[in-house]
Amino acid sequence: MLNLIRPNQKNLRIWQVLVLVAFFAVWHFATRDPQAAFFFGEPIKVMARIWQWFTVGSGTLEVGFMDSTWFTLNFPAEIYPHLLVTLTETLLAFGIGTLLGLACGLWLALSPLTSAILDPYIKAANSMPRVILAPIFAMWFGLGIWSKVALAVTLVFFIVFFNVYQGVKEVSPVVLANARMLGASQRQLLRQVYLPSATSWVFSSLHTSVGLAFVGAIVGEYLGSARGVGYLILQAEGTFDINTVFAGILVLTAFALVLDTVVGMIERRLMKWQPKSGETEKM
């Protein structure tokens, strides 16, 4: 009987659900006191707020560029236009930041002299608190989605950049020497040696970058926006509606997990050649 309830790979999902249920149970009983509920919210009211967001009312979103409107989207509930704006900002920042980090990481890893010249400036840029750039981006790009995308890109870029750079640097000199001895060109080395070496490092960074892309989008919406889940959270904070604040946090967390799951599925598909954990030791 003890073996059946002991955590293992077969009942892993059950234990994960039990942890979630236990968390909400503790939260529920801890906030039965009105004073505690004021600061920490009540899970039942939080869930009710999420349900209202997705089922009650209606919403519209004008799609266009600059001052021109191309068309208007109509939604069956209040949350959808805000959620679409936040997810659009997140996905754009995630994609742009990943591509820029991948390109710059490969470039500097394969150009030691350029890397040495730019090294102090890259470290200085990475050490800068990127949140302080939000007002500057708002001045440059306005209060639309692009100021939020720019802020989130700065968060995603450095995570991907340093992982790609390190992944290329970790390529075995023996493998490089053997490939060159067989007549591999620089382009073939890039495709057959450097990129496969950096791929595992890239996907490792992407799991972190998903959360940072959401952080950048939400912080940007906090500082100036008329749409987005961050805007809803800010409005709720202004009226001390802690239940709506936690509702926004839970919605963002759920969609961040969905995006992270998609990244994991892509990783498993592209990394089939990589031995699973523990297989190398068995061989």
Model description:
Helices cover 75% and strands 5% of the residues. The protein is mainly α and 283 residues long. The protein folds into two domains: 2-50, no CATH class; 59-64 and 73-273, Orthogonal Bundle (MetI-like fold). Strands 1-2 form a two-stranded antiparallel ribbon. A hairpin with a 2-residue loop joins strand 1 (59-65) and strand 2. Helix 5 packs antiparallel against helix 10 and helix 8 packs antiparallel against helix 10. It is globular, with a radius of gyration of 23 Å.
Fraction in helix? over 70%
Order of helices and strands: HHHHEEHHHHHHHHH
- In the predicted model, the low-confidence regions spanning at least 5 consecutive residues are none
What's the helix count?
13
Query: Within the largest sheet, what's the order of strands?
Result: 1-2
The CATH homologous superfamily of the largest domain corresponds to MetI-like
Q: Which fold name corresponds to the CATH topology of the largest domain?
A: MetI-like fold
Q: Determine the mean pLDDT.
A: 82
Topology:
Layout: H1 2-5, H2 12-30, H3 34-40, H4 43-55, E1 59-65, E2 68-75, H5 79-109, H6 112-127, H7 134-141, H8 145-169, H9 173-181, H10 186-223, H11 229-238, H12 242-270, H13 279-282
Antiparallel strand pairs: 1-2
Features:
283 residues; mainly alpha; MetI-like fold; 2 domains; 75% helix
What's a concise summary of this model?
The chain is mostly helical. The chain has 13 helices and two strands; from the N terminus they run ααααββααααααααα.
